[in-house]
Amino acid sequence: IESLKMEPLADVAMLPGEERVIDKDIIYICPFNAAVKGKVFITNYRLYFKNTDSETPVILDVPLGVISRVEKMGGASSRGENSYGLEITCKDMRNLRFALKQEGHSRRDIFEIIFKYAFPLSHGMQLFAFLSQEKYEENGWNVYEAMEEYRRQGVPNSEWRVTFINKNYELCDTYPTILVVPYKATEEDLKRVATFRSRCRIPVLSWFHKENHAVITRCSQPLVGMSGKRNKDDERYLDLIREANGTTKLTIYDARPNVNAVANKATGGGYEGDDAYQNAELVFLDIHNIHVMRESLKKLKDIVYPGVEESHWLSSLESTHWLEHIKLVLSGAIQVADKVSSGSSVVVHCSDGWDRTAQLTSLAMLMLDSYYRTLRGFQVLLEKEWISFGHKFASRIGHGDKNHADQDRSPIFVQFIDCVWQMTKQFPTAFEFNERLLVVILDHLYSCRFGTFLYNCESARESNNVRVKTVSLWSFVNRDTSLYINPFYTPESSCVLYPVASMRHLELWVTYYIRWNPRIQHQSPVEQRYKELLALRDQYLKKLEELQLSDSAPSSTHLTNRSTPNAATPNQHITHLQTPF
Q: Closest Cα to residue 416, out of 388, 386, 373?
C-alpha cells in the first residue's frame, strides 16, 4: 500500500535491482545552512533527500552501507524547534540529522526501515551487492589472475615455486589457494611451519625483484609464547628464503612497537629471537594497532566535521596523531623497499599478518614496481595483497552489521589509501590514476554495491559465491577509465619512488576528509586547466588529421567539401594550428 502513495523519484537514477521502500516529509538539519524542509526517499540501497523549500537544491545521496549507527533524537515531549528526530552517524566522516513532527510516533516507521536496510545482515537479509542487477561489458573479477601476476614478476623460477597445497584452504583458511614458496621447501616443510605461525599464515612470496632476485615475503607472528618456544622447521624455512638469492642477513620487519611484540608473548605470540634466528636481523617499525588507528580517525572526524576547528587548527590536527601514523606506515614501507632494492630479501609481519603487513607490503611494492602505479596494476595490487591475502574487510568495516562499537572495526585500508594519496602528491607524474579513483574506492569500500570488499577472506568469498552473484568494482571503474586518468602521468619503468616520510612533507587529505564542507574546493585549478588544454590539443590534432585526409583526397571533392568560403590552404591551417604548442 505504501508504495502506491510514493511519487516518482525523478532526480535519481535508480540502479538495476534497487527498490523504493518508503518516502517521508522531513527536515534535514544541515550543519552548514539552516534547517531544510524536504522529502527523504529510502530504497534498499540508499537514503536520498531533496529539499522542497527553496530554489537552491539541497540533495543528499547516501548509500545505506555508509551508515554506522542510527539513533533517536529527543522524545515526544522534547521542547524546542526540530528537537525530535533521527541522528545518523556515517563511516565516511559525516553525520546526518533529521527532524520530524512530534505527533503520533511519526519517526517509528522511518527509524525501523533505515535500521533494517542499513544493517541487512543483522536482520537476516542480503547485502545490496547480491540484489543488484547491474551489467557491465567487462567482468572485473578477471582483473587479477594470480598465476598471470606471478609470471609477470618472473616466478616460478629456480629459486621460487608455486604450490597448490592450499587449494582447499586446508593449510591456511585465510590465505589464497595459490602460494609461492622457496623452491627447496617441501610440502611437509610448509605444514610444519604452519603449526608455528599464528593462524597458520606461513611466510610466502609477495614480490620478486627481477634484477637482484631479492623478495618481499609476508606472514604472521611466530608462536613463541612466554617460554620462548623454538621451531627448527620455521628457522630452516626462513633460512631457505635468505639463501634463495644469497642474502647474507635476512631482515625481518615486525610492524609492531617492541613493547607490543613482547606483550604478545603472553597470548602465545611473539617475535623471532636472535638466538633462534641467527642469520636474521629483526627491526621493529613502531606502527600501532587497529584500536589506536580507530581512535585516531575518530579524533580527526571530531575536528573536521561539521565545522573545521579554526582557532587551533595545527595543534588540534597534531593531537589526533593521524599524520604521525601515516608517517610511520610510509617510513616502514620505505625501509622495506630500500632493503629489497639493495638486494636483500625481507620478511614482513605484524600479529596476524593481515592489517599492518598488507599496508607495508603493498606500499613497498608500489614504490618498487611501476606496474602497480598504472590504473590496472593498482587494481591488481589491491586484489592481491589486500583481498586475496585476507585483510578482514567485513570485520574492519562492518558491512551490513549494526554493532557499531565492535572492537574489530578499524580504518586500516583507509589509512593505506591515504598513504597512496600522499605518494601521488609527492610524485604527481608517477601515477596513471588520479585522486578520484582513490575516493571512488573508499566510497565503495562502504557502499555494499559491489562484491569486491565483502567478507574477510577468499574462502568466505568462495563459499558465498561472490564472483558469480555480485558485480566487481573494477567492472564499474573500467567502464570509463578516462574519469580516473591522471593527465600529468609520465610512464617510467625502472624508477623506485622514495616518498619523504617527514611530518613537514605530509598533508591532510582535505578533499577526502573535509569534502562534505561546502567551502572546500574539489579539484585543483591547475589540473582542471591542464585537462582543458589536453582536450584542446586532441581537438586540434583531430582537425589536423581531417585536413591532411582532405588534402590527400582528389581535388574536386576537396573543393566541394570546403566548409568555409575562401579557406586557407591546408599548409596555412597547419602552421596556425601549431602555434599554441
A: 386
List Cα–Cα distances, 355 to 290, 390, 578, in angstroms.
8, 9, 52
Where is the domain boundary, 510, 526, 542?
Answer: 526
For 101, the 3-state DSSP assignment is: coil
Q: Residue 130 belongs to what H/E stretch?
A: none
Is 228's pLDDT higher than 80? yes
Give the domain-ending residue among 98, 125, 152: 125
CA 308 to centroid of chain Cα atoms: 25
Is 289 marked as a binding-site residue?
Answer: yes
pLDDT band at residue 554 under the 50/70/90 scheme:
low
Q: For residues 551 and 543, what is the distance between their CA atoms, to the nearest angstrom?
A: 12
Q: Quick one: DSSP state of residue 284?
A: E
Q: How far, in Å, CA of 398 to CA of 410, rounded?
A: 9
80, 169: one domain: no
Tell whether 79 is in a known binding site.
no
Q: 290 labelled as ligand-binding?
A: yes
Give pLDDT tens digits for 296-352: 999 999 999 998 888 899 999 999 999 999 999 999 999 999 999 999 999 999 999
Rounded distance between C-alpha atoms, residue 120 and residue 196, angstroms: 38
Is 551 among the domain residues? no
350 annotated among ligand-binding-site residues: yes
Of how many residues is the chain composed? Answer: 581
Contact 204, 180 (CB under 8 A): yes
Do 76 and 187 lie in a common domain?
no
* Dist CA 204 CA 444 (whole Å): 29
**Catalytic member of 200, 350, 419, 448:** 350
Residue 223 in domain: yes
H or E segment to which residue 252 belongs: strand 250-254
Show the cell assigned to 236: 630452516
pLDDT (tens digit per residue) in 378-406: 999 999 999 999 999 999 999 999 999 99
Q: How confident is the model at residue 458 (pLDDT cuts 50, 70, 90)?
A: very high
User: What is the torsion angle, in degrees rounded to the nearest 10, for the CA atoms of residue 30, residue 31, residue 35 and residue 38?
Assistant: 0
Tell whether 486 is in a known binding site. Answer: no
The verdict on whether residue 401 carries a ligand-binding annotation is no
If residue 61 lies in a helix (H) or strand (E), which one and from where to where? strand 59-63
Looking at residue 6, its pLDDT comes to 57
Q: Do 509 and 300 contact (CB within 8 A), yes or no?
A: no
Active site residue 457: no
